[in-house]
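fyi for ur records
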Amino acid sequence: MASSNMLYFPYIPLHSSIARNSIYKGLAVVAAGYPATTLPTCRIRLCMSASHSRATLDRAIAILSEMGDAHHIKYAQY
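which gave:
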């Protein structure tokens, strides 16, 4: 389930909502804002391990995709 879509978080208050919703759905994430990113942006950080199964990674991608759709923050570079 590969995807070229990425998530972009232009508003800092939005990242805490996405982090809370992701954790509620079972995906542990860390929200990072300024000074770890430029002032008007923020990022969600994930940790992957070799011990994660393909099914676990597919589930994480599905949760992130759902969060991107729900918050209208998906974009694709072509």
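Strands lie at 5-7, 30-32, 43-45, 74-76. thats all i got for now
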